[in-house]
Amino acid sequence: MAAMASQAEHLGLLNTLAQKTREPEGGSPPSDYRALVCIFFFGGNDGNNTVIPNHNDANVSPYAAYSAARAPQGLALAQNTLLPIAVPRIGGLSYGLHPSFGTITGGINPGLHPLWAQGKMAAVTNVGTLLRPLTRIDYQTNPTWRPRQLFSHSDQTNQHQNARADVVMLSGWGGRISDRMTISANPDRLVPTVNSLNGARLFTVGETTQPLSLGPAPAPLSSILALTGYNGTAVSNARLAALEGQLDVEQTHDIVRASNEIHREAIRISRSLNDGAEVTVAFPNTGIGNQLKQVARMIKARSALHLTRQIFFCSLDGFDTHTGQLVGQASLLGQFSQASRAFFDEMTAQGIADKVTQFTMTDFNRTFNPGGSGANVGSDHAWGNHQLVIGGSVLGGDFYGINTSNGTPFPTLVNNGPDDADSSNARGRWIPTTSVEQYAGTMAKWFGLEPADISYVFPNSDNFSVMDLGFMAP
Amino acid sequence: MKFAFRKWSSFTVILLLSAFGAVAQNDPNPDSPTPWLLSDGDATRVLAVNSRGWNGGVPNSGRLTFKPSTSTSITIFVSNLELLPGEGSNSVRVYLTQRSGKTFELQTDRLIQATKSVYAIQLRLFDPAGYRGQPVADGDSLIYLTWRGLASNQLRIGLGSTGGGIRIPSVPALAASQVEPPTEYVGYFHSGDRVRFLEQAAFGPSTALDLRLRRIGLRTWLAEQFDMPYPTFAYPDRAQMPTATTNCTATTNPNCFREHYTMMPLQKWFFTEAMYGNAQLRHRIAWALGQIWVTSGVTIQQSSHAIAYHKVLSRNAFGNYRELMYDVTLNPAMGFYLDMARSTRTNPNENYPREILQLFSIGLYMLNPDGTVQLDNNGDPIPTYSQENINELSKVFTGWTFCNFTCPNSAQGIVNYKDPMILIPTNHDTTAKTLLNYPGAQNTVIPACTNCTTDEATKAYAEASLNQTLDNIFKHPNVGPFIGKLLIQHLVTSDPSPAYVGRVAAVFNNNGAGTRGDLKAVVRAILLDPEARGNLKTAPRYGKLREPVQLISNLTRIFPAKDYNGEGPSDGGLASHLVPLGQDPFNSPTVFNYFSPDYVVAGTTVLAPEFEILNTGNAVKRTNLLHTLIFEGLTANATDSFRGTSLDYSEFVPAAESDPTGNQLLDLLNTRMMHGAMAQAHKEKILAAVLAVPATNPIQRVKTAAYLVAASSQYQIQR
User: Fold this and answer.
1) Interface pTM (ipTM) of the complex?
2) Partner-chain residue, chosen from B171, B611, B617, that has the shortest CB–CB distance to A214
3) Alpha-carbon torsion A161, A162, A167, A171, what sign?
4) When you count CB atoms within 10 A of the terminal residue's CB, does the N or C end of chain A come out lower?
């Protein structure tokens, strides 16, 4: 029965099944609620200017090491602008967040920085695409152990979203979690488990899961999938019957059928999406602000939609800062911080801050060594990066991840140093010590993914000894 | 009798053409025969044998069941193929559909002539892509093949066992289409193929173009288009403005701002040219090239900059690819967009060198001449370049920047995007560089400059280095199949057979006169290929989703666009309506275009790039825009469209008026919108809605039918 239901979803027959049948084998859905919210920074966020050393300990890349490498071309952030965060994992040393994570001009809230001290935000450091744990020697001597097409936007974006660095895989880890959990967690769902605010991105697509694509606020939920031009007259009803009826014609053409399924699903779901109670916290009127506002509405409507598990995909574009990085990245991180904070506050207002976890991903890190100089200064494509996790169940206020050769999870900031993939013309592309699988797997476990399903969602998980990095409360 | 009549007609055509002064070139019958899979026994089960035991002939009966695996090689038999010289196993694609609903493309190894009329196809019960797993021993499955966009009959094949009750789908019966009067049977009389051709080579079929094609045929039309003056409507002439918007801001002088600091003038001109222009083919190719060599108004600040860039694309659309590479490389808009304009000896930038390889020329993996990916001994794809290559190429592209002082369009206080970039000698890296190495690569080393002691010497060295590097890239064997496939995807079909890609790549490699990279020859090869041509294509994966631009432009040509009041022409202010559909023209979100050429529809194995911008969210917006455009028209507004746009149905109203049953109207729409491919069941759905509209309101009947066709996936897939 389970197999049949997932096949039905694949064939777009969910309409009848989802509303009429309950899974006898799946048991009753979980009594609690949980949601994962991915915020993807398209273009490759420069993590080296997102989490920065703010200490003088020469053993673990102090601020001076950072400054020496980046200040001459003007890419170093001044130490007195950094927003300090204490890191117990590294002896309580101080690191700093980019100043855009604090109060900013035109902002509407204090930003994400205060959540660090409140223990609601953590950083997972030096994360990246890996096939298996990889030392610098391994990297240099075993090219086949490297992820496919390092430093290519499209490939590295995909590998973050599908958690598979060795072969092409056309499903993402969000979609695959849904493949395994939807039947049991959301047996009576009126909309799919996975919702995307940026189209059917790889992260959101499973082998059997298809996401719901939603437009952002301010459009109300009731309007975003509504057909216009129908008014209930006989002529109008006949036209609507034809519009829907022609979706069933000529299912023998694969491309026509694929298009029909999307249209049919949209019309079906539009009948379930009503305007529930509005969110109460103010969201910034930005792209990411309006995406997260729509997510907050969908979460608020979860009971009416019969959902106990939800996965969302949001995104922010423009991080490919080969040039003009100082202004560009500051603006983007500010938009992110303001929107993410508003979302956290809204979840708190809804009383479910500990049920909802936001996390970041991006194509890759950027070269430690800047490109260009002055106002044009930027950086190029690199690898291991730092990601942020935000929510009431995050064991925040610390760094997480597998240690680098310096004994901490933060890389040694030295071009051609022990963590640099480059050896000639070395520009500082950190070899990750923590894989996307480990980062994602920690959240998947919190979300409720059964141990037996880990290898389905993360096919290379056996290559990594630890699949729970410990940053989520049980 | 009919046959004789046609012969006589073509004779008349030649006479007529001579009178018009055009050179008549014969167009062959566009329809390839439909391949037929031979069956065993009851006519529903494929005739198949294990390849190992096959004796070379056509067996009387075949084995019933097979085990799906990489090593299981079976031989099936097909008749009714008429192969071109060199057309081999990569021209046929064999698909397997199982009870799970999954469809797999099986690996075809050999195509062997078994008898005079029967070919044997040897294949593995294995999907080399394996995106959605592999076939399983699940009882009866369906097997069929496609060739030149035509599907064979479907037959059962037992995997592991027989039985399981899978049904052979029936081929949908087609509705009638408008029959052309016999007196019009002159020239290129294949009305289905004419419409299809104009969907591929133009921004949609119009009555005038259709008549022209009928008169002169495809080849002559192409020749005419290659020489057609372009553009019909002059490019907008916008001044280059200072980078600071001081006296021309969005708030204080919004009109000035929109004209100079947004893509609006280019967008309006683009749609005007698409709707009404004469040089349709050049406009179409320039649009396709602009989706490969992407720049974007998201970053490019001014309309004048983007217009200068579009001129480079349109000027080179029928030129040589190598010249296009050079011209784009030194174009300031591209220089700004991918940062080459700021790449210097001390800070070389990797952006342009990486993308010119990955996106504009050779792609990530070594390709076979037919565009399939080469695999190494471990079965892994072979990368075309490494980070080391990028580092080396980055040095070549250093030192070039805007010509702000000495060029024709240089002016005080502005950055010059109209003239090509120039070299600042002190910013160029004069050390040695190593270029790409590949089979047949020549001149792969640029030695360090030994005489760069004067500006002139350094400039000459940098220019020579650039040309040597572009030659090195241009001559890479990947370029033909890589670019050929991309152009096929933009014009004809999302998932062309390797044989089709191979034929186009061969023309890229050599236009017949020894020239490599002749885009005119490449475009001709794409559009005249037997996989492109034909009145009706039946393969389940043939065709492409119309991107929003094509969806709307086609309608504005079938139902000639006017302004909102229906009085004069539309001003082309359509772009803002396409933003919610995921395609803001000239404002691509990234250098990766609106959609990726590798996008596979979620949950399927269907390669269909445009689906990356079709989802539940904007599918409804497509339908809603069609409703507004067709029923109401797009109103004028004070920002981007002072005149608005509406459609003219006058060519269609008489059919609705004269036939209250609605059949004539549907037959006509079937011909004009769907080249006769509308299924009878589809027609019946629409007819029911049409008949609900009183016959006394024929225009409303036309709008209702046009809306339903336009909103249907059957129409939105160009095929």
Assistant:
1) 0.94
2) B617
3) negative
4) C
